[in-house]
């Protein structure tokens, strides 16, 4: 199995209005470090998992709607909490759309919320 990881970060604002989340119930900002890992069992005809530039561009496009956004007002989070896990799923889904023509590429998104906590989401149905 081969993998390629590209990274970026995104600054968001949101609230998690449920007592389960303690002080994070109120509006607050977060800077999330984002890693997108693409994997495949065999390299493509160019001997790569994906072109690094293309992978970086895909991640940038996936993050673009989130940059400096208040996720409480973001249409894709309407009716659901914008937890780090839900945000990772959102990014993974956008990357899956970008790679619709390459179903043999696995996608895992890892968000680092702080130095002691990371969340990962692996897009189901891909290798």
Outline the structure in words.
By secondary structure, the chain is α+β, with helices and mostly antiparallel strands. The protein has a single domain (2-122), classed as 6-pyruvoyl tetrahydropterin synthase/QueD (Tetrahydropterin Synthase, Chain A). It contains two helices and five strands; from the N terminus they run ββαβαββ. The chain has helices at 52-63, 84-98; strands at residues 2-14, 28-40, 69-70, 106-114, 117-122. Strand 4 and strand 5 form a beta hairpin. Helix 1 packs across helix 2. The N and C termini lie close together (10 Å).
Spell out the blueprint of helices and strands.
Layout (H helix, E strand, L loop, with lengths): L1 E13 L13 E13 L11 H12 L5 E2 L13 H15 L7 E9 L2 E6 L5
Parallel strand pairs: 1-3
Antiparallel strand pairs: 1-2, 2-4, 4-5
Helix pairs in contact: 1-2
Supply the key terms.
127 residues; elongated; Tetrahydropterin Synthase, Chain A; single chain; alpha+beta
Q: What is the terminal-to-terminal distance?
A: 10 Å
Radius of gyration: 15 Å
Shape type: elongated
Number of strands: 5
- What's the helix-strand series? EEHEHEE
CATH class: Alpha Beta
Mean pLDDT across every amino acid position: 97
Number of helices: 2
Stretches where pLDDT falls below 50 for ≥5 residues?
A: none
CATH topology: Tetrahydropterin Synthase, Chain A
Strand order in space, largest sheet? 3-1-2-4-5
What composes the largest sheet? 5 strands, mixed
Helix content: 10-25%
Percentage of residues in DSSP E strands = 25-35%
Helix/strand-derived class? alpha+beta
Looking at the overall shape, the CATH architecture is 2-Layer Sandwich
